[in-house]
Amino acid sequence: MGYLTFEYTKTAANYVRIYQDGAWQTGTLTEADELHLPSMATALHYGQEAFEGLKAFRRRDGRVQIFRPYENAKRFQGSCAYLLMPTIEVDDFVSAVYQTVKANLDYVPSYESGGALYIRPYMLGIGATLAPVPSKKYLFGVIVTPVGDLFKGAFKPVNLWVSTVDRVAPHGTGQYKIGGNYAASLYAQSIAKSKGFDDSLFLDPLTHTKIEEVGAANFFAITKDNHYITPESPSILKSITNQSLQFIAKEQLGLTVVHDDIYIDQLDGLVEAGACGTAAVITPIRSLAYQDTVHVFPTNHQAGPITQKLYEHLTSIQKGDREDPADWLLIVE
Fold this sequence. Notes:
Elements: E1 14-20, E2 23-24, E3 28-30, H1 42-45, E4 49-51, E5 54-58, E6 64-67, H2 69-82, H3 90-103, E7 116-125, E8 138-147, E9 158-162, H4 179-194, E10 199-203, E11 211-214, E12 217-223, E13 227-230, H5 240-252, E14 256-259, E15 270-277, E16 281-290, E17 293-296, H6 305-318, E18 329-332
Parallel strand pairs: 9-10, 9-16, 13-14
Antiparallel strand pairs: 1-2, 1-3, 1-8, 4-7, 5-6, 5-7, 6-18, 7-8, 10-11, 11-12, 12-13, 12-15, 15-16, 16-17
Helix pairs in contact: 2-3, 5-6
């Protein structure tokens, strides 16, 4: 398959299912990876669109397993409900993901490659309307592609610029996985890169004093007293990777997990920091540039020892090298 990047590669089959006249039609697999939508589809003009991201991995024994699809299904329901789109039942979501992965087993990277099959379920409002109202017709789909790391050398600590603009509003859409949130982060990311940083970090949109998210990823840190701390806010997406890391931190590494505010001007108690999400798993953070100061975490140019252990534990579960701790894995027979 050659060198794996995080670019899209067409695969053998995608899943498509249509909702109209108040009911879901039977879903089908198709070779086509292009959609034909009305020019006035609500997804295009009014942002009626939600999606998920998860991965399937090739085990050492050659079998393929999907990581935590039921959690993605539940989160997807919340995103769709907020945008007044119809619900996909959890079992139907997982079945669609399963069928799509099974139809593309030849595209799942080898165990040795370190890659995965990225899975993108999504829902679009495809009914045509000029008025800003919910669509009457929807498309639910699943598309997959083989990937490597989101960032080349993803476990190298990064330098972040603390954004002066907001990604979401207080009590807005931040907790949902919808396209508008990601579009709203691109401007801050471009500023960060123009200043020589790897990405941007967003503060809470109400007071601009507390850490919320790193670009499109959750933030976590390790304190001097071995606490795994991560922000709690209604405008933060509930990362399934973060949930998994919290379980590992508590149950397997014996850390205390804390959900609390992390103030941008009170970082001295943190000895390690990282961003976590499906794409890169964990990206260690070297520094945060806030106003006229740069805070460098003690680990500096290296991933901290606990961050390293968290990464190794989680990726070994995903690849089948470590026992499934809590029914996280779905084997594709």
